[in-house]
Amino acid sequence: MRSDITLRHKGKTLIIDTKYYERTMQTNSRFNSQTIHSHNMCQIFTYVKNMDFAHSGNVGGLLLYAKTDEDIEPDKDFIIGGNRISVKTWTLILNSPTYPNN
Fold first, then answer.
1. Which of 72, 74, 51 lies closest to 64, judged by CA?
2. Which of 16, 34, 83, 92 could pair with 25 in a Cys bridge, judged by C-beta atoms 3.0 to 4.6 Å apart?
3. DSSP 3-state assignment of 42?
4. Whole-angstrom Cα distance, residue 79 to residue 86?
5. What are the sequence ranges of the domains in the chain?
6. Longest Cα pair distance anywhere in the chain, in angstroms?
7. Can you say whether residue 92 is alpha, beta or left, with left for phi > 0 and alpha for psi between -120 and 50 degrees?
8. Which residues pair with 51 in a beta bridge?
9. Contact 93/48 with Cβ under 8 angstroms?
10. Which residues pair with 79 in a beta bridge?
């Protein structure tokens, strides 16, 4: 397994894993809710914990989804096992009438 992007600066590491789905969030029919894809969270967590073998907490992860036309967007930060894991979206469309400021 290899992450998409790894950034290092002054003893800190950020591992970025990018994703695109037609639907950014998965539907949990049992609880009628929208959640982050659990297998993606497990994947970024595995990258982070394998990189932070010394348990320093200096390794973080970013799960970065391409923005879709869905109303709901993930924008979450978690501390899991002493490491920060963030889930965000990013607009990939540049200079379009729909997204003029990107």
1. 74
2. 34
3. helix
4. 9
5. 5-90
6. 48
7. alpha
8. none
9. no
10. 84
Kindly tell me if the per-residue pLDDT of 94 is higher than 80. no
Q: Which pair of tokens denotes residue 51? A: 């990189």
Tokens standing for 64? 């970065």
Q: Count Cα neighbours of 74 within 13 Å in the Cβ-side half-sphere.
A: 29
CA dist 76 and 63 (Å) reads 10
Residue whose pair of structure tokens reads 């969030």 in the numeric block: 25
Task: Give the pLDDT confidence of 25-35 residue by residue, as tens digits.
Answer: 777 778 777 77
User: pTM (2 decimals)?
Assistant: 0.78
Q: Answer for the pair 99, 75: CB distance below 8 angstroms, yes or no.
A: no
User: pLDDT-derived band of residue 99, with 50, 70 and 90 as boundaries?
Assistant: low
CB atoms within 10 A of CB 87: 23
Please compute the mean of the pLDDT values over residues 13-23 and round it to a whole number: 89
Average pLDDT, the chain: 85
